[in-house]
Amino acid sequence: MSWGAKAPTSTTTLKALDVWKYGETTTKRYSDIELENIGSGGVTQVKLITSNQVQIKVAEKAFIYSYFLSKGYLPPGNKIFR
Q1: CA 31, CA 10: separation in Å to the nearest integer?
Q2: Do residues 71 and 18 lie in contact, with contact meaning Cβ atoms separated by under 8 Å?
Q3: 53 Cβ contact partners less than 8 Å away, ≥ 6 residues apart
Q4: Mean pLDDT, consecutive 10-residue segments, the chain of 82 residues?
Q5: Strand, coil or helix: what is 33?
Q6: How far apart (Å, rounded) are the C-alpha atoms in residues 20 and 75?
């Protein structure tokens, strides 16, 4: 997706257990049915940390940088370093 676009602007193929995006949410953003209908096998939202907002932001940054350092690129859903 691109900011402001109503329809997808490109596609990315993910394998089982691939990470799409690291991010923060305070609610369950998508229903189980919506997650099951993404792609051919669905996706799973995994809670990695439960803490206060500052600690969550620090952990998010650590996950994104660690991913980049191990693979050489950002997760597809994380377009920038936060």
Answers
A1: 23
A2: no
A3: 24
A4: 75 86 82 85 87 92 96 91 76
A5: helix
A6: 6
Q: Is the distance from CB of 45 to CB of 28 less than 8 angstroms?
A: yes
- Rounded to the nearest 10°, the torsion over CA 21, 54, 81, 26 is 30
Question: Which residue, chain included where needed, has tokens 């952990």?
Answer: 59
Q: What are the residues whose beta carbons fall under 8 Å from the beta carbon of 36, sequence distance 6 or more?
A: 42
**pTM for the whole structure:** 0.77
d(CA 55, CA 61): 10
Q: How far apart are alpha carbons 1 and 20 in whole angstroms?
A: 12
Extract the tokens encoding 12. Answer: 């990315």
